[in-house]
Design a protein that fits this description.
Blueprint (H helix, E strand, L loop, with lengths): L1 H45 L2 H11 L4 H30 L2 H18 L3 H7 L3 H24 L8 H23 L8 H44 L1 H16 L2 H16 L3 H38 L10 H23 L3 H43 L10 H11 L1 H11 L5
Helix pairs in contact: 1-3, 1-4, 1-6, 1-8, 1-9, 2-3, 2-5, 3-4, 3-8, 4-7, 5-6, 5-7, 6-7, 8-9, 8-13, 9-12, 9-13, 10-11, 10-12, 11-12, 11-14, 11-15, 12-13
Length: about 425
């Protein structure tokens, strides 16, 4: 499945570039701007229920039907309320075409919002359902996206791939969930649902609130640049930023797949010192690859952007090196995050993400207002740097700081150790 995901990621990148060339910076900026708003609605509607579903179903499989049903109920109403508020805002700030596109995309993202089944299957150790369904739905959506551009249809038609992707994924997972959890002669009537809802919904709200803050913080510090850019410089700037961002993070697919596979060694390792060394080795791998790609991007970045996107995206090239370096720190952050999770640092992660969200809001505002497109790139780089380093150094007496120090002080030695442990060399 890792190979399939890499192949699909490459295909998705190619189609996204194809769409961006077709729409131009303004059109691409419009659809990215709207999706940013809807992403906020989706994460807010989640309200931490993904983690709750996983925990509760893992601990008590018999609770699956009730937990999933009422989490879906909660998410639907939160999403509907927030998306309606966003629509009213866009009604007064955007053109009629943008409002039509928003409504179509809002319906599409509704299916993503209420999809509670992915975490249910993970908790039941049936993640293969998620993988097969998600890959299949996304593949169909990519074909539709290609056809929309090929036949030069209007921008509103680009909502169709999202609708197909999220709807197919949701409906297939619901089918298998119902097959597994719902009895043929089920008399779970409306009155009973209301009674059970009184018991479950307050608990979901109470348990989900801390997780909601953490998840919203992550989205805020990664996506607020789009909203600030649109406000100060217009949707064209949003298009330039996201075209470059798409390319700058594309190379991380392979390192992340490597991190995912090799982290099983760290999870299975009992000795704390060895865990730290293996994590340092992963950091060295990512740094070597990232530095090489960053040097190439600084040298040939402009030609690369123009080749992929066309002359309209010339302004995108100016921020390419900064976002490339930012992606290196993002990878280091992923390794540090997983190391903290391996040591059960869930509370620390929640506090850290909330802190990063609070810091990113004024930083993004100041830099984007002062420097525009370059300011958004500066902000991304600074935030990823802080998130990967300083914000992690207070965990368990500086264990993440020790991991980073080892990676910098003995890179070749620690890389060799990691490759031997992974049986990639003798």
């Amino acid at each position: 499945m890792v190979l399939e995901k890499i192949i699909l990621s490459v295909a998705m990148l190619a189609i996204n570039i194809y769409v961006a060339r077709y729409l131009g910076p303004t059109g691409f900026g419009v659809i990215t701007y709207i999706i940013t708003w809807l992403s906020l609605a989706v994460v807010a509607s989640n309200f931490g229920t993904n983690t709750i579903i996983f925990q509760k179903v893992s601990a008590n499989p018999k609770s699956a039907r009730s937990i999933v049903s009422y989490a879906l109920f909660l998410r639907f109403f939160i999403y509907a309320g927030i998306s309606l508020i966003i629509y009213n805002y866009l009604y007064y700030t955007s053109g009629e075409n943008n409002r039509t596109l928003y409504m179509l995309l809002a319906v599409s993202f509704l299916f993503q919002s209420v999809d509670c089944y992915s975490w249910y299957f993970d908790a039941k150790l049936k993640s293969k359902y998620n993988s097969i369904i998600n890959v299949s739905a996304l593949a169909i959506a990519l074909v539709i996206r290609y056809l929309v551009v090929y036949f030069s249809l209007s921008i509103e038609w680009l909502a169709l791939p999202y609708l197909v992707n999220f709807a197919i994924s949701f409906l297939l997972k619901k089918y298998f969930f119902d097959k597994a959890e719902c009895l043929p002669n089920d008399n779970f009537n409306v009155i009973k649902k209301i009674k059970v809802a009184k018991r479950y919904l307050p608990a979901l709200l109470c348990l989900g609130f801390p997780l909601f803050l953490s998840e919203m913080s992550i989205l805020i510090y990664t996506r607020m640049s789009n909203l600030y850019l649109e406000y100060f410089d217009g949707v064209e700037a949003v298009g330039h930023y996201n075209a470059t961002y798409t390319i700058s993070v594309a190379w991380t697919v392979i390192p992340i797949a490597l991190i995912t596979s090799l982290f099983t060694l760290i999870y299975n390792e009992k000795d704390n010192g060895t865990q730290i060394k293996l994590g340092s080795g992963l950091i060295v791998m990512c740094m070597f690859i990232g530095i090489l790609i960053s040097v190439i991007s600084v040298t040939y970045g402009k030609y690369f952007i123009l080749f992929l996107y066309g002359e309209e995206y010339e302004a995108s090239a100016s921020i390419f090196p900064y976002l490339m370096i930012s992606s290196i720190f993002s990878l280091i952050g992923v390794i540090s995050y997983r190391m903290i999770i391996a040591k059960n640092g869930y509370k620390y992660i929640a506090k850290k993400m909330l802190f990063m969200g609070v810091v990113s809001l004024p930083l993004n505002l100041w830099l984007v207002k002062s420097y525009g497109l370059l300011g958004a790139a500066y902000s991304a780089l600074i935030i990823e740097l802080i998130s990967a380093t300083i914000a992690n150094y207070f965990f368990k007496k500086g264990s993440i700081a020790a991991m980073h120090f080892i990676a910098l002080s003995s890179p070749l030695k620690i890389l060799k150790l990691t490759l031997i442990k992974a049986r990639l060399i003798k």
